[in-house]
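Please review the protein record below. Let me know how this chain folds according to its tokens.
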Amino acid sequence: MGEWIAGKGGTFIFSLVLASTLLCPGWTKHGIALADQKAEASAPQEERGVAASDKTVAYHTPLAGEPLHTVFMGKSVDIPALDRGRVTALTLGGVFYTPKQGDTFATPIGALFLKRVWEESRTRDVISIFVNDLEYDRSFGNLELVTRFENNTIPFGQREVVNNQEIKTSDTEWGTVIASVGPGLRYKVAPFQVDNDLRLQLLGKVGYLYAKRTSDTGPNLVLPPDTLLYGVKLRGRYDGMRRNLLELPHTGMAAGFDLDYMYRDKWANFGTIPNALFTKADTRDYLQLNGYLMGVGGIPGLSEKNRLLFSLHGGTTRQRSADRYNAITIGGGPLPGESDDLCRPDYPGTMFNQVLVADYALAALEYRRELAFFIYLHLRETLIWADRAAVTDTNKFYFKSTTGAATTIGLDTGFFWDSELYLGYSWDSGFIRNGESGSGVILTWNKSF
């Protein structure tokens, strides 16, 4: 544990926000975890394909929020309907790397997720102490007022990991605090669940960026000045997905985009003298565009227990304006599934926010098999191309076109104490470790209250 925290400067806290994608809205709340069942038994009646009238019926996967009555291994299982608009969940776990990424062999995960949907307002909050993402929306029909607060204020030095090497002299304690407010439009869409809507929002942003030296900061490293931030975000979201009992996407489509402009009020040249200086003219303001498209459905000729999911993420920003404080970041962690987390590009087996890029495209194809109504096995292949941050022997910062592939096998299942467990193994072809292949194992436990 000590090496996790020391390696380096906030890896532990940084990883806390990762859990937002696996914070399933409370499917375990009413006692589904079959590890607690005491009797043995047979498959569900629907799974056996026999109805009361002796006619064959098609099997249907249990869906999130819906009541379920079935028989499993001779034990009657009753799951009442669930209010998916009222969720409190805790996720704990970790990711383990072999070989190390930089000087880090493991990253803990932990976060608290809150979601409340009322008649005229809603809130979604991911709380992990030093890294938080909070949103409250007040509706007036289809019009709404959106308010957001984000902070990334890790109280430790953070080092860049480039070419799978930790750059000790880059150690810097830095962070941002950003508040956003603005109008939005929200329309409910099919299949009309709590997370199915079409949103368009225009947000004004005000924030603050700070950077401090540590005992390991290199003498030639010039930090940017502390400064106010001003900007605007145009955000679009569409989620037409229906999710299964474990809150995994089961059918439908989702898409979205974020267009961000940010201006740094007080700015100056910074970087490593003399070879990696970022100029005030290039980096004072920047524009970023990110988007995603995702779909999931059945496989012709196979039962509903077989699902095929695809996703595509991409983004771009001007290379000359990208630096360690504003470049697009790609990381690993739990695979995206929760509606507001689908926008996060996930490359399995990567440390959170390890990879800095100016442009990227990430595609994934996943096959999922329902082994039982509470157990799902998946195989996923992820491909990535990116103009990725790199350094030369003189420590000069530049972007290099890089490609890679990752293969993942994972298992989602009910667990003791009415909870959920996810175990995944990923193999990377060399994108993460500068051409050297490697593996990662992730284990997360999710408990709803």
